[in-house]
Amino acid sequence: MNEYLSMLYLWLKSAHIIFVIFWMAGLFMMPRFFVYHQESAVGSEEDGKWIEREAKLRKIILNPSLIIVWVLGLVLAYDIGAFSQGWFHAKLLVVLLLSGYHGWMMGYVKKLARGERTITDKKLRLVNEVPGIAAAIIVILVIVKPF
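Given the sequence above, the corresponding structure tokens read:
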């Protein structure tokens, strides 16, 4: 099995990076959608359009990308023996936190669809920085491997 994975390693790594880019794009887009969505009146036609846009982003980009990133990432980690390396443990922690952030956003999508607007626009703009910070940390961990 290991030899087969090694032959496919560069293809799997490429696919992993591509789907990380898709996932990150969605993580950056969704909070912006939230800001604009909250400006619409609950139950209005515009509110309905934002609910639809958020559902499409969730179903077409965010959730499939999250699953593919995790599957490919774990396969790649197994292939290179990363489970015994400190940098990978730190990366895994950051990816777990980012996945939790993803889950929180999926919950807020549902709140907005119910007409609940519990977070201010300012806070939504701040949480929009989470994926960028996480991405910077992950890239440093993977490239530099500080420990």
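The two ends are 28 Å apart (CA to CA). Try to locate this feature in the token string yourself.
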